[in-house]
Amino acid sequence: MLQLAVILPTYNESKNIASMVERLDKALAGIAWEAIFVDDNSPDGTANVARAIGRTDPRIRVIERIGRRGLASAAIEGMCASAAPIVAVMDSDHQHDPALLPQMLAAITSGECDVAYASRFAEGASTEAWGRPDRVKASGLANAIARKVTGVQLSDPMSGFFMLPAATLRADAHRLSGVGFKILLDILATVDAPLRVKEFPLNFAARAEGESKLDRTVVFEFLIGLYDKWLGRIIPTRFALFGTVGALGALVHLAVLYVVLHLFGRELALSHYPKETAFIVGQTLAAITAMTFNFVLNNELTYADKRLRGFFPLARGWLKFAATCAFGMLANIGVSTALVRVGFHPISAALVGIVLASVWNFALSNKFVWGKYG
Ligand SMILES: Nc1nc2c(ncn2[C@@H]2O[C@H](COP(=O)(O)OP(=O)(O)OP(=O)(O)O)[C@@H](O)[C@H]2O)c(=O)[nH]1
Ligand SMILES: [Mg+2]
């Protein structure tokens, strides 16, 4: 009877799959297990590599997600896809040692603990082989913040290597945020009943093959995850994100408008141009600047492998973005100019225009980076 499912989220890990299956096979001798690779349609063909193994070894399964990204949601979907009573999550780049799995399984099945996890910072653990003292430091800091915000007192709440009964996960799966939060921490901070957690010291290794997916967006994702756990139920994360970015964009917009009105307002008013000319010019420049600001922000916060780089890709992306925003921008400029004509103050007219454009952009925002956060 199936005892354990090991969930391995993958993105461009084709060279690590076969060796990982071999290590699992060795480590889990005598245990009825299956492994589920949850792959986000990796361009390097990871899913096909895993499927090829699965053809002769039915313990190896694949979930391939199209048009989706995210480690946390991949782990949740993998855990929910198995019939095994106990599920584990680990990285597929060999940084996590599968030799710990039998001990973790024994601790759970014997009732010693509800959740077993491998800690990089427990006594007896080591991070030397990782060879990244900078990342050790960063993880330490993130752990300290996470402990403060969530109240979860573990030596390594950010660990990505853990095991628990599938039923425990399923009971609360609908309440997990699934955004870039470390999934173990998400689970521990979400469940109502306190879970007994056992730590297993881990000798954290260096990545075997392939490239790290960790980049600066991870810091951003970490903050979003903390927000989601902390205030997300009161003000939904997606809304807060959109609001924050929108408010920044509005500030940029108003600043540009103000400068244009200030610099050219009087001259234009004295010229033979219609008196709204300065406002229209200001609004147009402000809208284009705010849109560009939003475009840059969007681009910086997408996954590294999707980020546009170089003049031509950026220019093409900007044009596409502008075309999508064009309707909102025209509505913004048209309506606010009409308001100025009937006597509204330019700044309040601009604010009405910004709100109009925001409604349009909110409807479209799914297409862009915020789609990642639900
Ligand atoms: N399905 C899926 N898996 C992912 C995604 N991002 C990362 N992974 C996998 O999650 C695991 C951890 O990602 P890594 O890039 O190794 O992150 P890390 O271990 O924090 O960073 P390194 O120390 O640099 O390796 C690996 O098995 C990745 O292939 C994703 O967007 N989707
Ligand atoms: Mg890794």
Briefly summarize what is shown.
This protein has 374 residues and is α/β, with parallel strands linked by helices. It has 12 helices and 7 strands. It has a 7-stranded mixed beta sheet with strand order 3-2-1-4-6-5-7.
What does this structure look like?
This protein starts with a strand and ends in a 10-residue tail after the last helix. Helices cover 53% and strands 10% of the residues. The chain is elongated, with a radius of gyration of 25 Å. The protein has 2 domains: 4-230, Alpha-Beta Complex (Spore Coat Polysaccharide Biosynthesis Protein SpsA, Chain A), CATH 3.90.550; 237-373, no CATH class. It is α/β, with parallel strands linked by helices and 374 residues long. The mean pLDDT is 88. Helix 1 (14-27) links the parallel strand 1 (4-10) and strand 2 (33-39). A 7-stranded mixed β-sheet has the order 3-2-1-4-6-5-7. 37% of the residues are buried. It has helices at 14-27, 46-56, 71-80, 101-109, 133-150, 166-172, 183-190, 217-230, 237-270, 277-300, 311-341, 346-364; strands at residues 4-10, 33-39, 60-64, 86-89, 115-119, 162-165, 197-201. Residues 91, 93, 95, 207 line the site of magnesium ion. Magnesium ion (MG) binds next to loops. GO terms for molecular function: dolichyl-phosphate beta-D-mannosyltransferase activity. Belongs to the glycosyltransferase 2 family. It is found in: Membrane. It comes from Novosphingobium capsulatum. This is Dolichol-phosphate mannosyltransferase.
